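To illustrate the input format used throughout this study, we show a single complete record. The first block contains the structure-token representation of the backbone; no residue identities are included at this stage. The design step must infer an amino acid for every position from geometry alone.
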């Protein structure tokens, strides 16, 4: 089969087209003909940092985690899938799991689900990693109807899904962005936009919560921005973040009694730990999407499998809106 390989990691790492052996289905897995995949920030980190990250596969490596496609073969012990089923998931591209920048993947059946019926393959491929992340963060924060939820980075991959899911669960949603396009997308998704470049945290907390703070802050920016999340959160509030690889003074969180939830959705893939939970979340997300509660935003530029390098560059440029998708 055709695949795009990384032979050496680094800032100047390039993808190389190659013919590789088509994988064979095995017990508990399914063979999927990939129609589309998408690029996530962690994919670009692996390409550049390689062995500096404990989750990087050995080279030559097939990167890519998200996919949507059609089942070609079903392994022993798999009950939920048949040949011809349209599926989506996040199942490779790290550690010993070959990735999705190829024509086919053998995916653990616990890391996938049936594709939302009304979504295209490209739309479905955009969802798994970011949607599982957003869903897990909101669930761990105990989201409830009527709460005020702040999403930092609402025009990004995780953020634009978190807005939609929070609205689906009945929350009143607010979100930060830093440009006209970003703010327009946030409004289109149904959240109240906040320009973090022109409004201080104190200003928008006063404006939207009368100074009380937000019940939940979903911080898809993280790092130093967590300090802003602590400031924006209500007393005994919940903060969920996807980026916490930093040193930070937790004193503000202490005096507010905040709960901090660190979401690292790759744990089931890396450690073969409760992978079935990802399948369950993906099934729930498909139902939400089919009910009209979740539609991914795709970047206006599309890429072929041979253009995987350009797709990575598009994501890294910061010029894209929504998810960068590759048509395999």
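Output of the design step:
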């Amino acid at each position: 089969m055709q695949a795009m390989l990384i032979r050496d990691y680094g800032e100047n790492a390039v993808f190389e087209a190659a013919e590789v052996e088509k994988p064979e289905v095995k017990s508990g897995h399914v063979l999927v003909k990939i129609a589309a995949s998408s690029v996530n920030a962690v994919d670009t980190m692996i390409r550049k940092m390689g062995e500096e990250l404990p989750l990087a596969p050995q080279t030559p490596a097939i990167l890519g985690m998200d996919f949507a496609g059609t089942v070609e073969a079903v392994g022993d012990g798999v009950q939920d899938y048949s040949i011809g089923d349209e599926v989506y998931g996040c199942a490779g591209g790290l550690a010993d799991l070959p990735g999705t920048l190829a024509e086919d993947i053998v995916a653990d059946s616990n890391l996938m689900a049936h594709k939302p019926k009304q979504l295209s393959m490209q739309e479905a491929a955009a969802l798994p990693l970011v949607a599982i992340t957003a869903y897990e963060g909101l669930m761990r924060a105990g989201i409830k109807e009527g709460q005020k939820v702040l999403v930092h980075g609402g025009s990004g991959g995780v953020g634009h899904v978190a807005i939609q899911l929070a609205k689906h669960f009945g929350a009143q949603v607010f979100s930060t962005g830093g440009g006209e396009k970003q703010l327009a997308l946030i409004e289109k998704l149904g959240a109240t936009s906040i320009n973090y470049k022109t409004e201080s945290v104190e200003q928008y907390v006063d404006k939207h919560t009368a100074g009380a703070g937000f019940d939940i802050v979903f911080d898809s920016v993280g790092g130093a921005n967590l300090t802003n999340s602590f400031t924006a959160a209500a007393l005994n509030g919940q903060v969920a973040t996807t980026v916490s690889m930093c040193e930070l003074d937790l004193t503000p969180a202490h005096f507010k009694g905040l709960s901090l939830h660190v979401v690292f959705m790759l744990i089931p893939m890396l450690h073969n730990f409760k992978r079935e939970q990802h399948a369950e979340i993906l099934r729930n997300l498909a139902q939400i999407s089919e009910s009209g509660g979740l539609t991914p935003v795709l970047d206006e530029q599309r890429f072929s499998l041979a253009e995987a390098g350009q797709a990575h560059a598009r994501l890294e440029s910061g010029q894209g809106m929504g998810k960068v998708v590759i048509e395999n």
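Structural context for interpreting the output: Residues 2-127+272-327 form a domain with the Quinone Oxidoreductase; Chain A, domain 1 fold (CATH 3.90.180.10). Residues 235 and 255 are 9 Å apart (CA to CA).
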